[in-house]
Amino acid sequence: MNTIIKPLGRExxxxxxxxxxxxxxITGFYLFGMAFTAILMTTVVxxxxxxxxxxxxxxxxxxxxxxxxxxxxxxxxxTAVKMGETRRSYLWAAFFTTALELAVMIGFLWLLxxxxxxxxxxxxxxxxxxxxxTVWLQDVKLVLGIVIFVIGLLSLFGALLHRYGxxxxxxxxxxxxxAFIVGPRIMDAVEEGNDSVFGHIGRWLAEVFSSGxxxxxxxxxxxxxxxxxxxSVLLLRRASVxxx
Length: 244
What we know:
By secondary structure, the chain is an all-alpha fold. The chain has helices spanning 2-43, 53-70, 75-82, 87-123, 140-164, 166-192, 197-211, 217-236, and strands spanning 49-50, 128-129. The model has no long low-confidence stretch (mean pLDDT 79).
């Protein structure tokens, strides 16, 4: 038991130092979104609609902050093993700490959503909210599934970076750019209702995400998270320590 508790204690102490940075990133994006919303509502928007951009930007900030957590399964892994920790004990500590950080981030997002609601009611009462990007925060089961899936994703990406270095980085970059470039084209094709390849792909994806092939979304997220965690453990359990 000591071989697990000690690494966990060290990882938690190290994690506390980064919480301020992670929450600071989210807060910065949130304040930018709130200022942008206020400018739009007072100078551009003429109707009675309201788009809570502050929470949209806060969630973008949270997504960016996740990349910092990925290093726990790359450089952090090397440091821990060099200091004498076993791979198994460190990975247990890393998974637990990542889950705790995600819980803190989600709790912080929920708190910001309450502030957003107060901001809306105080300065723009009676408006209609066009898009609510915080619906998922109200579903505990969905939040749990997202946490498990993100742990699997971060650990897998971190392990791939550790194992394959620049090749893994550029592979992830290609996937990101593909999604960044092709994603908007698919969305436009669906909105326009055209019969192009992008339109067919978009409608198929919409059907998958809405029905999940008859499977609860929670179990899809759970399965993806478990696969990610298992794959990262396989990659790291016998991994050599990279030279710095």
